[in-house]
Write a structure and sequence with these properties.
Distance between the termini: 42 Å
Radius of gyration: 22 Å
CATH architecture of the largest domain: 2-Layer Sandwich
Order of helices and strands: HHEHEHEHEHEHEHEHHHEEEEEEHHEEH
Shape: globular
CATH topology of the largest domain: Dihydrodipicolinate Reductase, domain 2
Protein name: Gfo/Idh/MocA family oxidoreductase
Pfam family, one: GFO_IDH_MocA
Largest sheet: 9 strands, mixed
GO molecular function: nucleotide binding
Oligomer: single chain
Organism: Pedobacter puniceum
Strand order of the largest sheet: 13-12-11-7-10-9-8-14-15
Structural class: alpha/beta
C-alpha cells in the first residue's frame, strides 16, 4: 500500500492537469476529484455560503470548526445579515490559532459571483425553499459540491432536477437532514431494521400543519434588502412583510408557513421526521404508494406503502417525533430522546453496519470527507429528494382534499391530472432547472 501511495505521489501535477484538460468542456474538475493522492495535507476545502439567515449561524459554526475546511465567501440579498455573517466568521478565524493565512470572507449580493470563483470547492445553500433548486442546479453546473438545507425542494419536479444535475455533473451533495448523524435516530433505525419490535403495525409522525396561501399584510421594504432578488424564481410577486425575513436574532422566519415559499411544517419538520421513517423502512429510493387526507374514514392524513404498512400524520401527544408500533414493542424517537418498549432494548448493542445502515456521527465532517473521497454522504441528494417527495405528496393531498395514488418509481400520480400539475410550478422568466 505504501508503494502504491509513493507511486501516486510521484505523478507530476503537470501531467495530471494535462489529463484533466482532455475531459469534456462541460466537466469542471475540482481540486479533490481524484482523491488524496493529488491534495496536499495543508489544502482546505473552500466553502461559499449562499444565504446568511438564522440557520446560517448553526452551519457557520459547524463548518468553521472543521479543520479541513474554511469559509471564504458568503452571499445574501439582505446586507445587514451578510455583514453580520462576515463579521462573525472573520472574528472566528482571527481568534483561531494558526489561522493567520486566512484572507477574510468575501461578500456578495449575487450568489452567482460565488459560483464563478474557481477557488471555491463547495457551497452551503441556506436560502428559503423556493430558491433551493435553481441555486443547487446552478452550483452543480459550476462544478461545486453542495450542502443544501432541508427540505430539499419546494416541488417534486424541482427535487428530481436537483438529483439529475448532481449526477450529470458528478457532484457530492449532502442534504441538511442532520438527524441521520445523531445516535438516537440511528439506534431507532437499527431497532426497526433488525426486527427488534417485530413486524410493524403502523407509524405515526407528529409534525405541524401544511402551508397556507400567503396572507400577511404589506409592509415597507428595508433599504438594505433587495426584495426582488429575495423573491427570485417565483413567477408571481409577493409583497414584503417583516415576518418573512426578520432580524437575524429574532424568531425563525415565517416564509416556511406559506406555500409560495415553503411547505408548512409538513415539509419543514416533516423533512426531518419522515426522513427517519424512510431510512428505517429502507425506502431511500422509493416511498409510499398512496396518500389519503382526513375524511370520514380517516381521522388523520394517511400514507400507505406497497406492503400495506400505514403511516399517519398525527399528533400523538409528543411534538416533532415519530412513533413506531410493532407486534412485539414500540419506539418513540425525537431529538435527544429514545423511548423503547420493552425497556430491555433501550441500550441494545446492534451491528448497524451489518444492517446496511450508514454510520455518521458528524453531518458536516461526513460531507467534507465525501468531497475528498468523491463518495456519497449519509444523506445524498436522492435521499433528500425522496423525503421531500413524501412531504410534498402529503401537501398535494391536503390541497386537493382527496385520496391519491402515487407511483414512486415513475414519480407520477396515477390517473390524476390535477395532482400531477402540482408536482411542479412555472418559474419566473430567466430562471431554469437545467
Amino acid at each position: 500500500m505504501k508503494n502504491q501511495e509513493k507511486e501516486v505521489s510521484n505523478v507530476s501535477r503537470r501531467k495530471f492537469l494535462a489529463s484533466a484538460a482532455t475531459l469534456s468542456a462541460f466537466m469542471i474538475v475540482p481540486r479533490f476529484v481524484l482523491g488524496k493522492g493529488f491534495v496536499a495535507p495543508s489544502d482546505k476545502i473552500n466553502l461559499g455560503f449562499i444565504g446568511t439567515g438564522k440557520q446560517s449561524i448553526t452551519l457557520r459554526r459547524a463548518f468553521a470548526s472543521q479543520e479541513q475546511a474554511q469559509i471564504v465567501a458568503a452571499s445574501d440579498v439582505y446586507r445587514r445579515k451578510l455583514d453580520f455573517f462576515a463579521q462573525e466568521i472573520n472574528k472566528f478565524y482571527a481568534d483561531k490559532k494558526g489561522a493567520d493565512q486566512y484572507k477574510g470572507c468575501d461578500i456578495y449580493e449575487d450568489y452567482q459571483e460565488i459560483l464563478e470563483r474557481k477557488d471555491i470547492d463547495a457551497v452551503v445553500i441556506i436560502t428559503p425553499d423556493h430558491w433551493h433548486a435553481v441555486q443547487a442546479v446552478a452550483a452543480a453546473k459550476a462544478g461545486k459540491d453542495i450542502y443544501c438545507e432541508k427540505p430539499l425542494s419546494l416541488t417534486i419536479e424541482e427535487g428530481r432536477a436537483m438529483v439529475n444535475a448532481t449526477r450529470k455533473y458528478k457532484r457530492v451533495f449532502q442534504t441538511g437532514s442532520m438527524q441521520r448523524s445523531w445516535d438516537e435516530f440511528r439506534q431507532a433505525v437499527a431497532l426497526i431494521r433488525g426486527g427488534y419490535i417485530g413486524e410493524l403495525d403502523n407509524i405515526k409522525v407528529s409534525v405541524g400543519p401544511p402551508p397556507l396561501a400567503y396572507n400577511l399584510p404589506k409592509e415597507e421594504i428595508p433599504a438594505d434588502l433587495n426584495w426582488e432578488k429575495w423573491l427570485g424564481p417565483n413567477k408571481n410577486y409577493s409583497h414584503f412583510n417583516e415576518k418573512l425575513n426578520p432580524d437575524i436574532n429574532a424568531y425563525w422566519a415565517k416564509w416556511r408557513d406559506y406555500k409560495e415559499f415553503g411547505g408548512g411544517m409538513v415539509t419543514d419538520w416533516g423533512a426531518h421526521m419522515f426522513d427517519i421513517v424512510q431510512w428505517a423502512l429502507n425506502m431511500d429510493n422509493s416511498g409510499p404508494v398512496a396518500v389519503t387526507p382526513p375524511d370520514q374514514n380517516h381521522k388523520f392524513l394517511t400514507f400507505e406503502y406497497a406492503n400495506g404498512l400505514k403511516m399517519t400524520h398525527e399528533n400523538f401527544g409528543v411534538g416533532n417525533a415519530i412513533q413506531f408500533n410493532g407486534k412485539e414493542g414500540s419506539i418513540v424517537v425525537r431529538r435527544g430522546k429514545l423511548e423503547v418498549n420493552p425497556e430491555s432494548l433501550q441500550n441494545k448493542v446492534i451491528d448497524a453496519k451489518n444492517l446496511g445502515i450508514y454510520h455518521s456521527t458528524n453531518h458536516y465532517q461526513d460531507f467534507l470527507e465525501a468531497i475528498k473521497n468523491r463518495s456519497k454522504p449519509v444523506c445524498d441528494v436522492e435521499i433528500g429528494h425522496r423525503t421531500a417527495s413524501v412531504c410534498n405528496i402529503a401537501n398535494i393531498a391536503y390541497e386537493l382534499k382527496r385520496p391519491l395514488k402515487w407511483n414512486p418509481e415513475k414519480e407520477v400520480f396515477i390517473n390524476d391530472k390535477d395532482a400531477n400539475k402540482l408536482k411542479g410550478r412555472e418559474l419566473k422568466k430567466g430562471f431554469k432547472l437545467s
